[in-house]
């Protein structure tokens, strides 16, 4: 995954969940400044695949949680 794909994943995750970059960063355990930099392609993420995996896991967990409460 390159930095542009990671940026799109971050933006999409925020749109789908309604979360801000800060909330997404907190849920995956990185500093909010870093996720904003990655989302705007200002900074290249170290281990972008690992960050993407964390985002996808958080989204999966959130989907399961919403299904249980629905």
From TrEMBL:
It comes from the Bacteria. One of its GO terms (molecular function) is DNA binding. This is Uncharacterized protein. It comes from Polycladospora coralii.
């Amino acid at each position: 995954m390159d930095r542009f794909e990671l940026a799109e994943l971050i933006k999409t995750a925020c749109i789908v969940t309604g979360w801000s970059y800060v909330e997404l960063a907190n849920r995956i355990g990185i500093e909010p400044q870093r996720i904003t930099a990655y989302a705007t392609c200002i900074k290249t993420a170290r281990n972008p695949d690992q960050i993407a995996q964390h985002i996808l896991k958080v989204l999966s967990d959130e989907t399961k949680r919403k299904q249980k409460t629905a």
